[in-house]
Amino acid sequence: MPDSAIRDPLLGIFADILDYPGEDTLEQFRLAEEIASVEFPEAGRLLGRFRSSIEQMSADRLEEVYTAIFDLNATCHPYIGYQLFGETYKRSVFLVECKEHYRAHGFTAPDIELPDRLSIMLRFVSVCTDTELVTDIIEYGFGPSLAKMIKVKEPTIKEPELSDENPYSDVLRALQIVLGQVPDSEEPEELFPILENVGGDADVR
Fold it and tell me: Cα separations (Å) of 23 from 2, 56, 98?
């Protein structure tokens, strides 16, 4: 796994560029590309390719693209618990556990968003000092979730042609590289470890 001293500040920037686009999104992409290129040259190349594709977009157009990919496309919903468990009781447990870990480590997540959103969990991992917890989140949370979000849907009888690739795939692949989570196979990961210690009845929002 990459050196956390190099990785963690970069993950904070990934949290920004994978959140809803804002006025400084393009500048954040330039910064992520610059930093990643030093230790993760392939990640830097992927970020640069995506940055080039959005440089001429208006802020409104970039927000439309982001919304179409992450909010309107169930395959790429940016919620780790959803990617791991779908809309099941296990996800509810996962949300509670996330909030408990955030409180335990003095991390404040936005009240208006679910705590398993990718950008929020990336921001938490970027500042969390609990190495074991961070490793679990990366290996059992981010790893399988990113693999599912990037995967191109297989053709079917109703849709004989392959769907267009997610234009954010370059960003998500760059994140996989930085996390050391480029999959060797498509075998599912084991159950997320925090579910072994279910406890509390906190509100999941």
Answer: 30, 13, 29
Kindly tell me if the per-residue pLDDT of 182 is higher than 50.
Answer: yes
* HSE-CB for 191 with a 13 A CA cutoff: 10
CATH number at residue 39: 1.10.3480
Q: Is 203 within a domain? A: no
Q: Which domain holds residue 190?
A: 4-197
Q: What is the pLDDT of residues 16-27, one digit of tens each?
A: 999 999 889 999
**Residue 202 resides in a domain:** no
CB 120 within 8 Å of CB 112: no
pLDDT at 185: 46
CB 148 within 8 A of CB 83: yes
How far apart (Å, rounded) are the C-alpha atoms in residues 79 and 61? 23
Q: Which residues pair with 117 in a beta bridge?
A: 79
